[in-house]
Structure formats: C-alpha cells, structure tokens
Amino acid sequence: MPKPPKAPKPKKDRKLNVDLLCKMAGKETEREVPLPDGTKLEARTANLRRAKVAILLCPPLPPNGNCYAPEVGCLQAALALDGYCTVRFNFRGVGKSTGSTYFRSPQRECEDVRDICRWLHAYRKHLGEEPLQSVWVAGVSYGSAIGSAAAGLYDEFSGYVAVSYPASYLWYCCNLQGDQFLQYARTPKPKLFLSGDVDVFAGKKATDEVVKSMPVPVYHVACPTLDSTLGHYFRRQEDLEVLRREALAFFRKHAPTPGLDGDPKPRAVAKPRPKSPVV
C-alpha cells in the first residue's frame, strides 16, 4: 500500500532580524561624534557620502533601550535602504558615549542633537560632498521627547517622527519641564506620531490631546496593542512593520530622496493612513 502523504510542517513565526537588516542597510560605520564640551557620543552612520537627506535617530533610555533598540534598528535599516543618510547615537553616559547626567538635562540633550547635526554637515563638507537638502529627526520614547523639542527649537531640522511619545510622563522625562518641551514640539514643521492605544507611559487620551494641540501638518497612527508588558514598545514583527511602513510613507512624502543609484526621480509616495492633518 502507498504511504500516506506527510503532513506539511507548520511555518515558523520568524522574528524580524534587526541585525541582518542593519547589515543590508549600507554597512553602517561606527563613529565618535565630538561635542563642543569634549564629550564624545557613540554613533553609527550609513550613506554618509551619497545621500541627500539625513535622519537622526534618537533612542529610548536604558534599561529598555539604546541606539540598538529594535525600533531604532528597524527605522535605520528601512531608511538607509531607501537612500537616506542615517545617524543613530547614544545619549551621554549610555553605551560607549562619555559624559553623564543624561535624562535630567533635557535642554542639553536637545543641544546635543543639534550639535550632531552640525557635525554631520561639517563632516560631509570635509569629505567634499554637496550640502544636505534637509535633516530630520526620528525619536523613540524618551528620544521622541528630546527629538521633537530639538526639531522645534532649531532651524537645522525640517520636521520629526515621534514613536511612543511619552505623553503621560513628559513631566518625568523632561525634569518637571514637560509643558515647556511640549511647547517646543508644537512646530509648523511636518510631524508624525506613532503610538499604542494601551500604553502605560503614553495613554490614548493624553496622546490624542498632544496630537490635537499640534499645528498642521501633523499625522497620527495608532496601534491597538503593542508589547504585552507596558504597551509602549514596537517590538513584535507586525508592529515593527507598521513602524517601517508609516515612517517611510511620511519621509517619502515630505523629504523624497533619489535612490543611491543616482536616479533623480523621487520614489513613489504611498498615502499615509493617519488621520491628517489634525486641526
């Protein structure tokens, strides 16, 4: 008698391999970014020479994050593969970055983001590259509070993406200056918020109020649930895919960049799903 056919093996749920994506993203180069006061920040760059648009990636704080957090790695890989220059870094006192007193000096952290941007311009000039068309900021959790404020404070930046903006704990992240740093973030520059509906640090009501207070253009994409503990982090593969898709749609719309092959035509723009603009 013929043998019965073997049952097909169940497909494995493959998790997003961030390390592999980063290797595909253009061979990041490890850097030390010197700041005016002598502090050196650990950083990694991609497409430093050829890209026309740059995006600085501001990380969440330890113990739940640094510049190697999945959200930062996913954004870096997707953006670098799309032709953008990416710079991800660690704040003072985190990883290999020197200095200390991070987290309780939000104004200085904003200045550090600005100084990284100025270093980027100076380094490209040293390499003989043309000036960048624009520089943007994308931050995760604490990094979104600092990055959005820096984008509003300094003319060097054209807009920002805020992932898991800590709307409910902004007072804590910004050393009791939450209202001031929220005001900095209220800039007419383009901005995108990505959040979870059930978030310990960024409740739905608080996040909605923050988004509604922003001048246009502003976009907001919400996920029903994120990680199972705090609801704050984009760690599951399906959540990281939302993060990748929406961030790319935002940057392709507001900061189109030619591919690294020199094609002058901007890439096709996918319509973002957020409810936008919010009045």
Describe the structure.
α2 (70-81) packs across α8, α3 (106-127) packs across α4 (142-153) and α4 packs across α6 (178-185). The protein has a single domain (18-254), classed as Rossmann fold (3-Layer(aba) Sandwich), CATH 3.40.50.1820. It contains eight helices and eight strands. The longest helix is centred in the middle third of the chain and has 22 residues, at 106-127. The chain has helices spanning 18-24, 70-81, 106-127, 142-153, 170-173, 178-185, 204-212, 237-254, and strands spanning 29-34, 40-46, 53-58, 85-89, 134-140, 160-163, 191-196, 218-223. Helix content is 33%, strand content 17%. It is globular. The chain starts with 17 loop residues before the first helix and ends in a 25-residue tail after the last helix. The chain is α/β, with parallel strands linked by helices and 279 residues long.
Beta-strand proportion:
15-25%
Order of helices and strands: HEEEHEHEHEHHEHEH
Strand order of the largest sheet: 1-2-4-3-5-6-7-8
From the helix content, strand content and strand pairing, which structural class follows? alpha/beta
CATH superfamily: Alpha/Beta hydrolase fold, catalytic domain
Mean pLDDT: 86
Low-confidence stretches: 10-15, 261-270
Largest sheet: 8 strands, mixed
Q: How is the CATH topology named?
A: Rossmann fold
Helical residue percent band: 25-40%
